[in-house]
Amino acid sequence: MHWLFKSRLFIVSLLLMAMGQSVQAQTPLAAVDNPQTRLEIFAEKTTVAAGEPLWLALRFTPSEGWHTYWENYGDSGKAPSLNWSLPEGWTADAPLYPVPHRIPVGPLMNYGYEAPQSLLVRLTPPAAIPDQPIDLALSAEWLVCADVCIPEYGDLAFQMIPGSGTVAPGMAALFAKARAALPHQSPWQASARISNAAFALDVDMPKDDAALVKSAYFYPVNEGLFGYAKPQAVSYGEDGLQLLVARSGSAPQLGEHDQILRGVLVITNDNGLDEGFEIAAPLSLDTTLVAKSNGLGFSAAGLQIGLFEAIAFALLGGIILNLMPCVFPVLSLKAFSLIRAHGAGEKAARHDGLAYMAGILCSFFAVGVVFLALRGAGASVGWGFQLQSPMVVTIIALILFVLGLNLMGMFEFSSRFAGIGQGLTEKKGLSGAFFTGVLATIVATPCTAPFMASALGFAMVQPAPVVLAIFTSLGLGLALPYVAVAFIPLLRHLLPRPGPWMGVFRQFLAFPIFLTVIWLLWVLGRQNGADALGYALLMLLALAFIVWVWGIAGGRGRRAQIVALGLTALVTIPMIGSSGTFIGFEAGSLVKDIKDQPKAGSYEDKLAVASWSPEKRDQLREAGRPVFVYFTADWCITCKVNERVALADSDVISAVQDGSVAVLKADWTNKDDRIAKELAAFGRNGVPLYLFYPADGSAPKILSQILTPALLLAEFKG
Amino acid sequence: MSMRFPNLAGAFVLKGAALLFAAAGLLAGAFVAQAQPMIGEEAPLFAAKNTRGETISLEALRGHPVILEWTNHDCPFVKKHYETGNMQKTQRALVEAGVTWISIISSAPGTQGHVSADEANSIAASRGSYADHIILDPQGDLGRLYKARTTPDMFLIDGDGTLLYQGAIDDKPSARHSSIEGAKNYVLAAFQDMQAGQPVREAETKPYGCSVKYAF
Asked: Which PROSITE patterns match (chain B) (predicted)?
């Protein structure tokens, strides 16, 4: 049976039970009250029949804030011990425990129950019993702890009357509830491996089941397999679900009894419901097993999205890209050309829209091919990877700068360059529209729209045709709003009428463009320092000079043009020649040291932000601290906005300080394979990514890509 | 407006505390990451002051076997072993055989079992403890170094500094005084194996009892 189906049944039965319980009061056979726990014994049946098993429930009710323990209590504690005094021929089986919970105590992790719970015990009478009341007795010892521990004891005696064994009033509900709290039989095969360095539990779970898994945790009955406070990494691969725990200490000795792994696998499904499964799996020694740091406790299965969803997300992401500050001016320009062409024919508008789309699609296709080539070469790349190269940053800045000058009216593109703002009726306008599409793609790259990270993360691990399909879909999304306007006359009529205001608006659009240029130059400065920045500014000046020269020469004779060509060469050649030296293709490390030290008084300083590394994260987690990790890059505007809005918030800062949350920053401004791998482990290949690792060692939470103070406060104070 | 200054000062204190926490966390993390108590390998080295103010260094104790006993005088499991005299009996047998016995208290300030040096000495005296040294470890550094989990939690280190045993004192995870009778004392057994020049048969057991009351 499908386990999700089971969990629905489980809820229904719980509801039924809750109703039943309110009707029937339950009277225990015997009870004992201790300062911190009440222990009661219930029998399922009113009478006991010879040879027929009788189920007992031992209900432990701890005081508020106190807890009792599971059969493996984890790092500290004690399992309940039960000593039965039974008549000759009677047997009592080991108790069945409900699914346990994690109870973190500082750096230690205990397993137990913070609420009332019932152990189920099966008593079996002999084949013949005398026809008189039978005396049964239990001497129990259990440990109940809050911050301190108290051993408590109970000596309970009761009688059972021989009879046919009908279910006692109120007991059906009580026992059904107790049984529902036990782990289910696992519908999946499992096996386990262990080495000095790691423990792995492989659960042969079909894709359909795994897709519903949000997180998982394994409670071992066997002792000494791994540290109970260690984070458990969950991933989903070809062989099903894998749970990996780093371990250290002595090499495990697999004795006779340790060949079988026992425990409870608790799975949290999509709806946030926990369900426990009993695991009995062969355990073998595998000296090659290592704990890969692939994002601890993360459920890849939970985030796995299908091809269709990925394409849909890419399309949506592309549409949203239009609104991003880096793309908006370009889109405005396109809208502009449409307004100009108000009177122009339907056909021309459509052709223009198609050319623009073709420009975008070809560019995205090219990006996809480059992506595949890099991936094929073994590089770890992600969305925005282009901007990790200072040279690419500089070139985009130059292109945008020229565009800004054009908008300001410093010069007009000749028809050979195919003017962005020119009439649609010109045939050359088509290549202009194509070029605008290319431009839109170039400027869009740094803006990771919220939906795109998942889609591109999905793309990362797919075969080539799927990757290209996703990139194409992204391009389609980017082109769609404009194409819609071009194709639907009704939409076009909504645009304002042409007029002198257009000239003013066009000049205004230069400002967001220059803003983008400033930002790109700042990124370059962060990447390679003030020298590179100064050099890039010189290049901008040279470019402006060339544009000015050609603006003058354009309207004059051949001689003027030769002079202009000469001047261009004079300025350009030394610039290009030395650009490699000053700007470089790879980001330098010289600025990185400065970046790692947060400025005094900045929010990074207040949050005590440290540089991320898997080792540091693990250290902090082992020390029992909650950890917040943010993956960012200077060229990622979404990241920067999120950080300003959410991380610099004074309430967030005090919550971090109060909760001693460790904040780690993974800065991907420059190429960093470790960060790329970590992103991939979380199904992403771009920034931002926000992770919160709770103090109890449980699986990290992937937070929304749109970070708000409220969202962070909910996690940090949670 | 009048709240402004106190708030500012409060923020500073908070910030300072957070930084300290961060530093302590990293330090503790480093400890945990570096040293790992492993049976058959060198026990993690430490040097700490005992309740008499003398510095005790594990390295300086080479040549003598050493027992580390994590304790908390108010923990019912510790009480069982002291009130029945079982712990003292074990201490006496080993100390007389040349073992250096070190009792360690890792309870953080404000938690159960946290005591001053004088209190620790008088509790030990009143119980007739044979321990050679008592070390107060309120920061929990030593506890984390050895990954001590419960009280009691026992470690046997031989004269060469090799860790031979870690875990429970015996095989009866109960707080009942009656459970001492018939219990198998793992520490004594490990020591006897060592004396006989044999490998320790049960070198690692699961400790039971109260959690070590770490600072966090």
From this structure: THIOREDOXIN_2 (PS51352)
Q: Which of A148, A224, A608 sits opposite B18 (nearest CB)?
A: A608
- Cβ–Cβ gap B15/A610 under 8 Å: no
- For residues A543 and A536, what is the distance between their CA atoms, to the nearest angstrom? 10
Residue numbers in chain A where pLDDT is lower than 70 = 1-25, 237-239, 249-258, 290-307, 324-326, 337, 340-344, 375-386, 413-429, 445-463, 555, 577-600, 637, 683, 685, 718
Length of chain B: 216
Chain B residues inside the 8 Å CB shell of A227: 147
Helix or strand (DSSP H, E) at B68? strand B66-70
Pick among A149, A660, A693 to test the B interface (most B CBs inside 10 A): A149
B144-181 in b/e burial notation, b at 16+ Cβ within 10 A? bbbbbbbbbbbbbbbeebbbbbbbbbbbbbbbbeebbe
**Cβ-proximal residues to B71 (8 Å cutoff; 6+ apart), any chain:** B78, B103, B104, B105, B113, B151, B152
Which residue type occupies A311? I
pLDDT tens readout for residues A522-571: 888 877 778 888 888 988 998 888 888 887 777 677 888 888 888 888 87
Other C-beta atoms lying within 10 Å of the C-beta of residue B109: 9
Residues B7 and B89 in one domain: no
Q: Does A625 touch chain B (CB under 8 A)?
A: yes
pTM, two decimals, is 0.52
CB B164 within 8 A of CB B39: yes
Residue A80: closest C-alpha in chain B: B174
pLDDT in tens, A23-82: 345 788 899 999 999 999 999 988 999 889 999 999 999 999 999 999 999 988 899 999
d(CA A41, CA A120): 10
In 3D space, the residue among B67, B211, B167, B59 whose CA is nearest the CA of residue A108 turns out to be B211
* Structural domain span for residue B18: 1-34
Side by side, which strands form the sheet with A610-611?
A: A610-611, A662-667, A627-632, A689-693, A701-703
Judged by DSSP in three states, B46 sits in: coil
> CB atoms < 10 A from the CB of B210, how many?
31
Q: Do A147 and B22 touch (CB under 8 A)?
A: no
For the domain spanning A3-180, the CATH number is 2.60.40.10
SS3 sequence, A436-488? HHHHHHHHHCCCCCCCHHHHHHHHHCCCHHHHHHHHHHHHHHHHHHHHHHHHC
Q: Are B26 and A619 within 8 A, CB to CB?
A: yes
Which residues of chain A have a CB within 8 Å of the CB of B19? Answer: 608
Are B19 and A75 a contacting pair at CB < 8 A? no
Are B27 and B41 in the same domain? no
Residue ranges covered by each domain of chain A: 3-180, 190-303, 307-528, 598-717
User: Which residues of chain B neighbour A105 with C-beta distances below 8 Å?
Assistant: 211, 214
